[in-house]
Design a protein that fits this description.
The protein is α/β, with parallel strands linked by helices and 398 residues long. It contains 15 helices and 14 strands. Bound molecules: adenosine-5'-diphosphate.
Length: 398
C-alpha cells in the first residue's frame, strides 16, 4: 500500500464518479464514470494513462456493480493494493458535521438524518458508501461534506428571519454548498500570496453550473450566498438565485402551477437558460450575445450585476478585503465576465490588469489586478484533491 493514494468517490442516484489520486502530488492516476445506473443500459468508462475503456454494466446495473467493476479495473492496472483510503463526497452534513470524518455506523446514521436537507443526494451517497465499504472493506472510508466548511458561520448570517421555532423544528437555516471548493481555494490563496490563512480576508466566487459567493475571514466562513438549498444567491446556469418567495403564490394564481412545477422552474428552467432562452452554458450564452442576441446579453449582465452586488455585500461579512478569488468553470475561464465584474467593483479599489486577466485562463492561477490591496486572483478549484487530502490525513496516510 502506498502512503498517499486515495480513491475519491462521488456517488449520485444514477452515477458513480471515481478518481484515484495521489494526495501528495495531486496526480490523477485513474478515473472512471459509471452512468445510467439502475437502468438496463448502465455502463462505466475508465480512463487510465490516456486510454479509455468502456464496460457494460447491464448484468449488475447498480452502485455495487459499478464499484465492483471499478475494483476489477484497478486490479488490472495494479492499482488496487496501492489505495490506502476511500474519500466520499457528501452534499449535506447539516449542523452535525463540521469537518470530514471516518465512516462508522454513527456517521451513517447522522448522514441519514440529513436526508431531509438533501433528499436527492444523501440517499445516493449512502448507497455509494455501502457499496464501496463492501467492495473496499479493508481500508478506511472518509466522508467529506460540501456544507462542513460553512459551519463556522455566525448565527446572524445563517438565521433566516422566519419564526424561530421553524429552525428548531425542521433545521430551516442557511447551510451553503461548495464548502470543499472554497476551503481548497482559500488555502491556495494564502499559499500563493505567501500569507497566513488565519490573517486573510477573502471573498471566494465559485462560478460553475452552480454558483456561490463565500466570505472567508481568517480561515473561517463568515457568510455564503447559497442557503437551505443551492437555489439561493447568484444567478446560475438554470437556477434563479435570489427571488421574492411570493413567486410561489403569484405563479400559482397567475398560471395555476403547483409547488412542484414552480420548484422545477426555479431550479431547472431559470438562470442563464431562463433569461437567454439559449442555454445554461455560460460559453454558449456568451457566443450568442456576441452574435447580437439581446436576451443572451441581458442574461450575462444580470449574472454580472448580481455577482458584483454580492461580492460587495460579502465585504460586510469580512470587514475588509484582501483578495477576491474567482474559481469554477466560469470564474477560471471567462475574462470578459471578470473584467466586467471588477469594473463594477472599482469603488472597492479593484483595478483589472487586462494582460494578466487574459492570461489566467484554462487552468492557470494568478493575480489579475493592477491593484494589490485589494487584489483579485484566479485559482482553479480541485475538490477531489481536497477530499483525497482529508481522507489521507484521517486514515493516517499523510
Ligand atoms: P460544474 O458546476 O458542473 O462543476 P464547471 O465548474 O465545470 O461546472 O463550470 C461549467 C461552466 O463553466 C459552464 O457554464 C461553462 O460554459 C463555463 N465555462 C467553461 N469554460 C469556459 C470558457 N472558456 N469561457 C466561459 N465560460 C466557460
Amino acid at each position: 500500500m502506498s502512503d498517499s493514494i486515495v480513491l475519491v468517490l462521488n456517488c449520485g442516484s444514477s452515477s458513480v464518479k471515481g478518481a484515484v489520486i495521489d494526495s501528495k502530488t495531486g496526480e490523477v492516476l485513474f478515473s472512471c464514470l459509471g452512468e445510467k445506473l439502475n437502468l438496463p443500459d448502465a455502463f462505466i468508462t475508465f480512463k487510465y494513462q490516456g486510454e479509455k475503456e468502456v464496460e457494460d454494466l447491464s448484468a449488475h446495473p447498480h452502485h455495487t456493480g459499478a464499484i465492483e467493476a471499478m475494483l476489477h479495473a484497478l486490479e488490472r492496472h495494479g492499482l488496487d493494493k496501492k489505495i490506502g483510503a476511500v474519500g466520499h463526497r457528501i452534499v449535506h452534513g447539516g449542523e452535525h458535521f463540521k469537518e470530514s470524518t471516518i465512516v462508522d455506523e454513527a456517521v451513517i446514521d447522522n448522514i441519514q438524518k440529513c436526508i431531509t436537507l438533501a433528499p436527492l443526494h444523501n440517499p445516493a451517497h449512502l448507497l455509494g458508501i455501502s457499496a464501496a465499504r463492501n467492495v473496499f472493506h479493508h481500508i478506511p472510508h472518509i466522508v467529506v461534506f460540501d456544507t462542513a466548511f460553512h459551519q463556522t458561520m455566525p448565527d446572524y448570517a445563517y438565521t433566516y428571519a422566519v419564526p424561530f421555532e421553524l429552525y428548531k423544528e425542521t433545521g430551516l437555516r442557511r447551510y451553503g454548498a461548495h464548502g470543499t471548493s472554497v476551503r481548497y481555494v482559500s488555502g491556495e490563496a494564502a499559499r500563493m500570496l505567501n500569507r497566513p490563512a488565519d490573517k486573510l480576508a477573502l471573498v471566494v466566487a465559485h462560478l460553475g453550473n452552480g454558483s456561490s459567493i463565500t466570505a472567508v475571514k481568517n480561515g473561517k466562513v463568515q457568510d455564503t450566498s447559497m442557503g437551505l438549498t443551492p437555489l439561493e444567491g447568484l444567478v446560475m446556469g438554470t437556477r434563479c438565485g435570489d427571488i421574492d418567495a411570493s413567486v410561489f403564490s403569484f405563479l400559482h394564481e397567475q398560471k395555476g402551477y403547483d409547488i412542484g412545477e414552480i420548484t422545477e422552474i426555479l431550479n431547472k428552467k431559470s438562470g442563464l437558460l431562463g433569461i437567454s432562452g439559449v442555454s445554461n452554458d455560460y460559453r454558449v450564452v456568451e457566443e450568442s450575445a456576441d452574435t447580437g442576441n439581446r436576451r443572451a446579453a441581458l442574461a450575462l449582465e444580470v449574472f454580472a450585476y448580481r455577482l458584483a452586488k454580492y461580492i460587495a455585500a460579502m465585504t460586510v461579512a469580512t470587514g475588509h478585503l484582501d483578495a477576491l478569488v474567482f474559481t469554477g468553470g466560469i470564474g477560471e475561464n471567462s475574462k470578459t465576465m471578470r473584467a466586467n465584474v471588477l469594473e463594477k467593483l472599482g469603488f472597492l479599489g479593484l483595478v483589472v490588469d487586462d494582460k494578466l486577466n487574459a492570461e489566467m485562463r484554462f487552468g492557470k492561477a494568478g493575480i489579475i489586478t493592477a491593484s494589490q490591496n485589494p487584489l483579485a486572483m484566479v485559482i482553479p478549484t480541485n475538490e477531489e484533491l481536497m477530499i483525497a487530502q482529508d481522507a489521507a490525513k484521517l486514515a493516517g496516510l499523510a
